[in-house]
């Protein structure tokens, strides 16, 4: 229940910032409130999945989503973990594409 509450708070906070721009492909494109909520849900679920995975770090991996296009940035310890994070993102409902910019540091 606590996780659901945190996800709701994060989602509402991101919806409030939806009109501010930023993120992948923000240029002149605009998102509807529904798209912003969908993106916030993707980011929240992805961050929760990263936090739950003992091999991946939600602290070292940044997740952005715009219109279902997810961008992963940050550091991982191996190529296998880079692929694991990308596969995790691709399996999320609503994800249309994944831009994996994770850097292998180990």
TrEMBL record:
Name of the protein in its database record: BON domain-containing protein
This protein's record includes keyword Signal: yes
Species assigned in the record: Ramlibacter aurantiacus
Annotated signal peptide: 1-18
Zinc-finger among keywords: no
Coiled-coil stretches noted in the UniProt entry, renumbered to this chain: none
Keywords assigned: Signal
Family annotation (InterPro entries): BON_dom, Lipoprotein_DolP, Transpt-assoc_nodulatn_dom_bac
Domain BON intervals: 38-106
Gene3D superfamilies membership: 3.30.1340.30
Pfam families: BON
């Amino acid at each position: 229940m606590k996780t659901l509450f945190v996800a709701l708070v994060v989602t509402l906070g991101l919806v409030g910032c939806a009109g501010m721009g930023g993120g992948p492909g923000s240029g002149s494109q605009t998102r509807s409130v529904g798209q912003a909520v969908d993106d916030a849900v993707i980011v929240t679920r992805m961050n929760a999945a990263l936090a739950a995975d003992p091999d991946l770090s939600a602290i070292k991996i940044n997740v952005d989503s715009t219109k279902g296009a997810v961008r992963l940035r940050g550091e991982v310890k191996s190529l296998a973990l880079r692929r694991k994070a990308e596969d995790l993102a691709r399996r999320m409902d609503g994800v249309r594409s994944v831009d994996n910019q994770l850097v292998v540091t180990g």
